[in-house]
Amino acid sequence: MGSIVEYVTAHTHCVPEPAGLLVIASGAIALAGFVRRRRA
User: Fold this and answer.
1) How far apart are alpha carbons 15 and 29 in whole angstroms?
2) pLDDT at site 33
3) Ordered mean pLDDT values, 10 residues apiece, the chain (40 residues)
4) Rounded Cα–Cα distance for residues 3 and 15 (Å)
5) What is the pLDDT of residue 32?
6) 8 A C-beta contact, residue 39 and residue 30
7) The domain containing residue 14 runs over which residues?
8) In angstroms, what CA-CA distances link 25 with 8, 18, 39, 40?
9) What is the DSSP string of the chain?
10) How many domains would you assign to the chain?
């Protein structure tokens, strides 16, 4: 999980644009949904 956080933070620093943040936000939502489905 730490590697994913490092990957996201690295990309947010490289792409501080709203579009980049939107892509990261949608990815985080998709990841959260995937984890929620696996636990259920």
Assistant:
1) 19
2) 92
3) 69 64 86 88
4) 18
5) 92
6) no
7) 2-39
8) 10, 10, 21, 23
9) -HHHHHHHHHHHHH--SHHHHHHHHHHHHHHHHHHHHHH-
10) 1
Tell me the two tokens of residue 36. 């929620």
Question: Amino acid identity, residue 10?
Answer: A
Record the tokens describing residue 7, joined without a space.
Answer: 């990957």
Q: How far apart are CA 20 and CA 12, in angstroms?
A: 7
Rounded Cα gap, residues 18 and 40, in angstroms:
33
What is the predicted pLDDT for the residue at 17?
Answer: 67
The one-letter amino acid code at 9 reads T
